[in-house]
Amino acid sequence: MSPHYLITLNYYLIAGEASGDLHASNLMKSLQLEDEDATFRCWGGDLMQAAGGDLVKHYQELAFMGFWEVVKNLRTISKNIDFCKKDIGAHRPDVLILIDYSGFNLRIAKWAKTEGIKVFYYIAPQVWASRESRVEKIKAYVDQLFVILPFEKAFYQRHGMEVDFVGHPLLDAIAAYKEKDSNKESPSKPLGEGDSFIESPSFKDQQIIALLPGSRKQEIVVVLKEMLLLVEHFVDYQFVIGVAPSIPITFYEEIISIMGIEKSKVILLENQTYALLNQAKATIVTSGTATLETALFEVPQVVCYKGNWLTYQIAKRIINVPYISLVNLIADRPLVKELIQDELTFVNLKKELSNILEPEKAAELKVAYRQIKKQLGNVGASDRAARLMIGYLK
Predict the structure, then answer these.
(1) What is the domain extent for residue 87?
(2) Residue 275 phi, psi (nearest 5)
(3) Which of 39, 113, 144, 369 stands 20 to 30 A from 327 (CA)?
(4) Cβ neighbours of residue 142 under 8 Å, at least 6 residues apart?
């Protein structure tokens, strides 16, 4: 444990997605090691609440993905921003810590700066991917930026901004899971009994294909239908869907039913994505943080994305990176196959899944994944970020 600073701070954190909830919760735990009596008020999810946060609003009320979806919900978004400002103003935190979720958080950062509230940004907005001009907003509104991708430090330096590269917090989360898994006795439950069945001895020999269709309903309903077409064509494999946090399992059951697939052919697994990836033979994954999680578990993957037509047309014109997956962006080459929009078809999915199930291709991917892991730095991102933050706040 690091030396305990004789200060007690009031932190206000804002995360707008499931991945932000995970990383913010681990940051909160690390902050508590440095500041034992810290208080946290937050916008986020169940994990932040479990870490001791006073949860103001759940990210499920905030998650609007894509241009058209944002336009339809402008009134709700505006109300949320106004409410957030009032709540921060009423509690006057020592520091406001923003986690990703740039559309919302940069507006709050601008307001907080005018109010004299110190602003830290952990997990920087991906301005290198689109609308690079937002760097100027970050420079104007954010007191200190903590980045997690290896190429981000140089990117911000080119824009005249010194930032702290702390490493990727996924390394912490996965290391914690693997340590817990290695210390655990072999489960004795048979398949289907309780929610640890995927780790039971009776399930260990199953050839699993993991389906990770995203964390928002609007993306799940489109992508999962395409994924499920594979079930009848890979009969030697057990398909398992990783259920997103706070999405009711009935939502997935309805889609499976609509597709006319027998329940026994697809297993739904709640709150156990890492257990699923730990045993998967291959994964079909929607673009996002899950692509990097899949790589760090060394699982061959096909990345897919399909959204609203208008949203996609706009995105094509403003995104200035060659890939949508973090894996390919970090590798700086098309390491894993990306099936985007019209390319996401049953024929293409079947072809690419067959490819990554080949032993030679799987071995090639694993070697490349290990190189990506080295680029991300060592474990301890949350601890490094917490120590730096408190150092700046002293």
Answers:
(1) 10-168+377-393
(2) -65, -35
(3) 144
(4) 98, 109, 119, 120, 121
Q: Are residues 87 and 229 in the same domain?
A: no
How big is the chain, counted in residues? 394
Residue 128 CA neighbour count, 13 Å, CB half: 20
Helices (H), the chain: 18-34, 46-50, 67-72, 74-91, 102-114, 134-141, 152-158, 169-182, 217-228, 249-258, 273-279, 289-296, 309-318, 326-331, 346-356, 359-375, 381-393
What is the rounded CA–CA span in Å between residue 201 and residue 194? 14
Instruction: Please give the pLDDT value at position 206.
Output: 82
CA–CA distance, 298 with 305 (Å, rounded to integer): 21
Contact of 152 with 124, CB cutoff 8 Å: yes
Give CA 82 to chain center in angstroms: 26
Residues 265 and 154 in one domain: no
The model carries a pTM of 0.81
- The per-residue pLDDT for range 144-178, each reduced to its tens digit, is 999 999 899 999 999 999 999 999 999 988 998 98
